[in-house]
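Sample 3 of the quickstart, ligand adenosine-5'-diphosphate:
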Amino acid sequence: MKVFVINVGSSSVKYDLYEMDTELSLANGVVERVGTEQATHKATVGAKKDETKVAAKNASAALAIVLDHLTASGVTNVAELKAVGHRVVHGGESLTRPTVITDAVKDTIERCAAYAPLHNPANLTGIEAAMERLPNATHVAVFDTAFHSELPPRAFVYALPYELYLERGLRRYGFHGPSHQFMAQSAAEFLKTDLSRLKLITCHLGSGASVAAIDGGKSVDTSMGMTPLEGLVMGTRPGDADPAIAILLGRQGLSPDAIEHMLNKQSGLLGISGVSADFRDVERAGAAGNDRAKLAVEVFVHRLKKYIGAYAAVLGGADAVVFTGGIGENSVTVRNAVCEGLVYMGVVLDADKNSRCDPKSAGGVVDIASKSAPTRVLVVETDEEKMIAREVVRAIVGPSAARTRLSGGAIPVGVSVRHVHLSRAHCDALFGKDYELTVRREVSQPGQFVCRETVDLVGPKGELQRVAIINPLRKETQVELAKTDAISLGVNPPLRESGKLDGTPGITLRGPAGSVTIDHGVILAHRHVHMHPDDAKRFGVADKSMIRVRVDGERETVFGDVIVRVSDQYALDMHVDTDEANASGLTNDSVASFDGQA
Ligand code: ADP
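Result:
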């Protein structure tokens, strides 16, 4: 399978074509200065490099030039490109996985431009251009924010009025996801340890820079925030700075646009040194006696060191610190200065390995820690495009397998995590009179969404905190658990279809405005398949039929009693709870198959 990865910026179109069976790049390049008279196309095909002046008035024209070049050089042709990956900077709270692009997805990307005004509009232009040039391909958006989408609330909530999060989505999102994810996967492979067992601090140090704390493969904290401005010192961005500075400058007459420009383009290494945004230039100027350039490097190193210490505390120690990006991969002095004095967390560099480090010629990863030190220090040659291509494969293999196997009865799977449906009266009691729940993300069935608000469940034996609420409100409050949840709470609900609550046990729900104890409403949801009447006809079943569903794979399972629910509002989707999913190895990417009437 070939995957064509496109990264469209405000004036450039970068691309990379991968053969995913081998993960080899067949061709890559960039069209720079798009929209100007000086547009150039730098292209690499195998060992052959070309640089030509081109007439690229916009992203669409640039893409046409690239596709013609790929065809002319015999690498591929347009008809062969069936899978296209688009790097998109901001996916907000709802686009948290690689996603096949539809009109609704484009609308969400446009809405998220509020948090990434420099990036999302350009990314969207690239998507439109590529969909026009490659109308028969599946286009997948891969988001910089997605890898951080499982940050716990204690890491993503700003200590601002909470309503700003609920009503406007002001929170930490984090960026550079493909690079942090690539570093984590490379570290696990290099250390021959499953990612689920590793605690990692990953540092992406390029012209933009961020650091992440990764526990068991999940990002649990990261330095960039609602936008890519927060955190480390960058080429032209300040990273952490007191928000009062912007207010003060505003009061003194600087317009919001001027402040934004100062924060995005005139700060960071450039701002302090006055020399350059390029780390090499600043380092050189510092070595030649420029005090401000020296100071810029010191502030850069100090900030990073501070974050590494903070993330060691967040993780409870790290198995490895990982460096990447132009500075992380190349600067011996930065790695040395950052790691100096970190012996308390087991970090000791081998000076010789650090100075000879060349991840490119060493298979992509080098360990520069001293042999006897408890914490590894890895330098990884990052490959964000390859990571995006991997995510594209992950996104389309499930659904496309579903499509190709549809005639054989394939059914996509959705795993339902414990959740609550609330009545109006109970919503009032938990959140305040006439409280309107806010949308975090939509779920597969039309009109339903997961809310930003959560409730705690309090049972006779234990509590479960931050349980999801699914809107819209219903006539009666209903709590859907997996058996393991019920055991830890100390309740014993029966297996029921949604809405059939007679004779079910109750529980206490706790919200910010008060608690509610219901005397019935807790169920284990009976596994079921939603389907459209067309699917029902194809399978020869009707509403309320009981069917068997087969799950292939390592934990082969046949579910003998799956209820069919038919409506023209439904898309084909089987719902199982987390216990059922874990027992049969199912995830949200899985596809099961129809195995006849039960
Ligand atoms: P981008 O984020 O634009 O992709 P890169 O990851 O290529 O950027 O990183 C660019 C940064 O890396 C620049 O500040 C550059 O000076 C720095 N860099 C590249 N090579 C070296 C080197 N040998 N020593 C120090 N810094 C380097």
